[in-house]
Structure formats: structure tokens, C-alpha cells
Amino acid sequence: MANVLLSNLPTYTGNTDGVYVVMNDSGNTTTYKVLKEDLIGASGTSGTSGSSGTSGSSGTSGSSGTSGSSGTDGTSGSSGTSGSSGTSGSSGTSGSSGTDGTSGSSGTSGTSGTSGTSGSSGTSGSSGTSGSSGTGFNTIETPATSRVLVSSGSSTNQAIAVSGLTYDGSTLGVTGGVTSTGAGSFSAVTVNGQPTTYGTVNPTVVLDTNVVSTSVNGGSSTSPALTILTLSIPSAGTWRLDAELRAYVLGAGFMAAAFYDNGTLIPGSEYFIAAGGVTQSGAATGQYGGFMSYNLTTTGARTVTVGIWSTTSANCLSSDDGRTWARAIQLTPSIAIQATATGTLNTDYISVTSITGSSANYGPTGASRDVILDTILASQGITYNTGTGVYTLTAGKTYRITSTIGWFNSTPGYINFNWVDSSTNTAINGITITQANNNWSTSQIDPLTADFIYTPVTNQSIKMRVFGGSNDTFALIGAGDSKVVIQQIANTFSLTTISGLTTTGDVNVGGNLNVTGTGSNVITKVTGSWTLSAGTNTVSFTVTAGESYVMWVNGNIPNGIVNWNATVTLSNSNVPVIGVQYGWYYLAGNALALTSIPSQIVGTAGTISTSAPTVLNSNTFTFGITNNSGTPQIVYYGYTKVS
Do 304 and 241 form a contact (C-beta atoms < 8 A)? Predict the structure, then answer.
């Protein structure tokens, strides 16, 4: 055989059992053929791997080869692949005996068996100990008495005590705005320091009962001898001033009183309390009582006092019996519906006095019967005629009527008068006022006060009228000693400032709603009608250009119906109107026939229109309607501005 390199020989891929291998002896003197099995010994077949479980026992050692040359160590069988858990594979069979030769060296140890199956799970460990407690709620920012706590944000352990939100156990105080999305019920609500329309509006009342009872002798109306009562009026407004006075006057002099505004006499408020020199007996000797009243309008906080003067030693009695006091009641208190909607309480009132008096002969049959005062001091909502003495009251309003009238009579006597309807001279209250000379011995009759409540059913004119007396020689005292104050009670109110008003309910307007602003959020509705003559008619209505409207025409008579509606937006009056319109009439009856509708409305839903027909006054919408009924008929139209 020619010399051939091993690398050039083909690779044998068949069964190698019984194949001979060529080899030399150790001295390279003889060449032999040797069975592959004699050379390396046949390896036992590998046992199949046991499934995972307990460790398999070591395979048995292969039997020793036959004597002969020592065979090389057999290679270890490869480990079987792991299988499912099961019993250990059986030991491999012993290899067949080699040919005789020298004893081979001991084979290497077989590889270890596969791992056994995992052990069962151990028992659960004992529970861990609890974690330490959290920090909890531990911080209040800006704390102060009565403040309400609110969340500080995302923190779960701190809060803020809000300065503008307080609660003292009975009153919740809020500084700033309040927004409510639900309903609520309150017995009284105050907004910006003012009562609201929910509940009773309570006017401010100032009272002084701590009379100074020092005796005086002297002074005058412009410079009183003594200030006996003081009222601190807190704010601007119209105030009713009342004073009940009880005086002690002995001798032949007199005592008078008046109201003073920051120390200055309020003209017309003077009041003649008493003339001394009256013959009396018992504990009441020299004691007089009287009531004075005046309506004062202030522009701010004022100090109003009651001052007295006298021509003899005299003094006002203390208030132990509750008869000497002064009071100021606010007639026009501010109110608030919301912080942005405020106004004043509408109180009708009038204050009238007699400055010059009257020397006319008053009496049961005298020339003068109606009591006429000559000077209006203040008034609102009530009219008075200084020529006739007639006051005009409004139906349904409730009034407090207070009159204090002084008389002069040169002879002893008495006089009776009351309040009557000016047209019928019928008494309106059933009260008879009787005044007389004290013990019929002096000419001066001290003023006597009548005070009552009256509600006219219809608009009514009233007056005071003399209807009885001892004679016809009484004269009316002037110098402010005779006066009338009429004041409305149970008042209504009006809003004078609305910068914003929020409501979650309906707003009902009895008349027109006029908006002086842009009115962008106000829907304005206008309605009208046309009277159609028999035959053909051309009718129209005109709206303001530059706005959007919903419009309609509606006519409905026996056998005749015409309907039209449109939604339009106008720009300039010389370009078309964009929108959509529909018209219909009842053809079967034909009493009304819609013959034409406005031509300036252009546009198709879902498209952009560039139509530009020639139009004039596109804000005037014109219709042709034929009236076939034979008589004039009314057709209604209207539009609502929505922009």
C-alpha cells in the first residue's frame, strides 16, 4: 500500500465492534493487529439516570480484564441525564472479559450518582415581632383658641389652625368668602358685619337710661344748662330719636329740653316739659312728664345728647321707675344678600313741627278744627301738606304714628282731638286725646304724646282734628313744642349695590330686566304681534346687528296656522345672515298662508358658506302672509338674544 497520510484517509463511520487496530510492540520489532475491545476493554453500558430522589448507589466495579498486557483505564461512563423522580437505575452489566494479558490497573472510580430528591419543606418559622409604632398626629401649625383645624396637604400627622375659621361652641366665624354647593339652614346670617335677608333684620338701637338729675336754673335752647342723657350713634343713616322725660319743677318757672348733635341744637327738636306754679298736693307736687321725638340723618358717627334749661330751680328725675330715658333707632339699616349685593332698608318717615304756632281759635265749634303744623323737618316716602295738615299714607304699609301737641288757652278748660281720615273726618284708631290746663288754673297746657300703630287698607290721607273741648279759644303752641313723627315699620328693602350675585335657583323678574353692561350671560327675550288685514300682508321685525338670536313666528286661528323659526347670527347689516330657518303653514285650511320668508339667511349644515347675495338691512326679517279668513287676524312673533 502506498504511503498515505492519515489526514488524507477517509473517516470511518460504521460500527467499530470487532475492528482491528494496527500497532507495534513496545520494542517496535513486531506489528500486530489488535481488536479494539482488547486494546481498551469494552465499556459497560451506562445505567439510565435515576429520577431525582435519593442518591443512587455507586455502580459495581467492572470485572477485571483477563491477564495480558495491562489495558488502559476504561473511561468513565457519562452521567445519565436527570429524569423524573423514581428508583435508582440498575447497575450496568459487567463488560465482557478481555483477552488474557497482564492485569490492568484498577479502573478509576465511577462518577457519583445524581442527587437525590429534595427533602420536604421544613415547618414555618415563628411570626416576626410587630414593627414599632408610627409617629402619629403630632403637629399643629399657628395654634390659637377656637381656631378650626384643616389638613396641611398630604401629611397624615399635622394640621393647620386657620386664623379665618373659628368656632367658639355656638358661633362659626368665617373671614373671607364662603362657597356652598349644597343646601343649608340658618336662623341668622351676617355678611361683612351686616344682617342678611334670611331671618329678621334688626336695626341698631342705642339706649341711655342713666339720667343726670342735678338741679338746674338757667340756660337756653342753644346753650342748655345741663346735659342729662347721651346717645353714641355709631354710623351714618337716618335715626329716630326718642326721649321720655320726667321733671320736677316748683315755682312759677318752666323747664324745656331739646336734642343736640355734637353739642349743637337740632332745630325743631325743642320740647316744653313743664310750667311751674301749678297748685298740686301729695307726692306728685311739681312733677311733670313728657315725650320728645325727632328724625335725624347723619353722615357718620355722632354723639346726640338731651339738654335741659329752666327759668327756675328744676331737675329731671332719675330712671328708677323707668320713665326717664333716651333712645336712637336706626331707620335705614344696611342689609346684605351676599357680600357683593348690599343695600338699605327702605323706611318711610316724616318729622313735622310747628315753629310759629297758631293763634287761631281751636275748639269744638271754633273756626279752626284741623291741626296744622308749618314745618317739615325730614321726610322720605310720606308726603305732607303744610297748608292743610294732611299726611298721605300707602296701602298695606304699617306705621308708627307719634304726635305731641301743646296748647295755650287764656281761660281754664280742656280740648279733645284725634287722628281722622281727611276725607270723611272719621277717627282711624278710636283714640281720643284730651288735654287740659293743669287744675284749670294756668294758660299753658303741657304737650301730651299719643303713640299708636296703624296700617291703612288703601292709600289714605289722614290728619289731626279737634272735635271737642270746653271752649273755642285754644291756640297751637309753636317753637317746636308741637310735633308729629310718622315712621314705617315692618319695612321692605332695596339693593343699591350689586357687583355680583350668585344663585343656584331661579331668578324671577316681574318686569323688564335691563342690563347696562355687556349682557354676555343674559338672555333677552322680545315678543310682539302683527294685525293682518284680509288679503296679502308684508310684515317684519328688526333686531340689533352683530348678535345671535333664536326667532319665531306663530299664528293660529280656525283653519289657519303659520309657523316659522330660525337660529341666526348677524354681523354687519349689509352682509348675509348665517343660520337656518324653517317655515310651514296649514294648507288644508288655508285661512293663513305663509307666502315668503326672509331671503338673507344663508348656510348649509356642516359646510362653510361663501354666498354673498346683495342685501340691505339684513337685520330686518320680512315675511309674506296672506290672510284668507276675511277678517283681521293677529300673528305673534318674537326673538331671544343669546349672545
Answer: yes
Q: Which residues of 74-97 are buried (b: 16+ CB within 10 A; e: fewer)?
A: beebeebeeeeeeebbeebeebee
Report d(CA 347, CA 344) in Å as an integer: 9
CB 328 within 8 A of CB 441: no
Cell of 269: 327738636
Pick the residue with more confidence: 283 or 130?
A: 130
Distance CA 513, CA 309 (A): 57
Q: Is 438 inside a domain boundary?
A: yes
CB burial of 10-47 (b: ≥16 within 10 Å; e: otherwise) equals: eeeeeeeeeeeeeeeeeeeeeeeeeeebbebbbebebb
Residues 6+ apart with CB under 8 A from 111: 76, 77, 79
The better pLDDT of the pair 282, 631 is held by 631
Count of other CB atoms within 10 angstroms of residue 164: 11
Domain containing residue 299: 205-332
The answer to whether residue 272 sits within a structural domain is: yes
630: left (phi over 0), alpha (psi -120 to 50) or beta: left
Do 615 and 525 touch, CB atoms closer than 8 A? no
Helices and strands, number each (H, E), in the chain: 1, 43
- Residues 281, 323, single domain; the answer is yes
387 and 292 in a single domain? The answer is: no
Residue 637 and residue 554 in contact, taking contact as beta carbons nearer than 8 Å: yes
Task: Indicate the pTM of the whole model.
Answer: 0.42
Closest alpha carbon to 607 in 573, 575, 582, 580: 580
Please name the amino acid found at residue 242: D
Task: Judge whether 46 and 113 are in contact, CB under 8 Å.
Answer: no
Is there a single domain that holds both residue 487 and residue 356?
yes
Do 303 and 364 fall into the same domain? no
Q: What is the tally of structural domains in the chain?
A: 3
**Claim to verify: residue 285 and residue 376 sit in the same structural domain:** no
Q: Has residue 339 been placed in a domain?
A: no
Lowest-confidence range among 177-191, 512-526, 620-634? 177-191
> Tell me: the pLDDT tens digits for 423-446?
998 888 766 676 656 544 456 666
Q: What is the domain-level CATH number for residue 364? A: 2.60.120.40
598 within 8 A of 579, measured Cβ to Cβ: no
Q: Is residue 634 part of a domain?
A: yes
Residue 570 confidence (pLDDT) above 90: yes
Say how far apart CA 423 and CA 362 lie, in whole Å. Answer: 20
- My answer on whether 250 and 325 are in the same domain is yes
Instruction: Record the cell numbers describing residue 422, joined without a space.
Output: 281727611
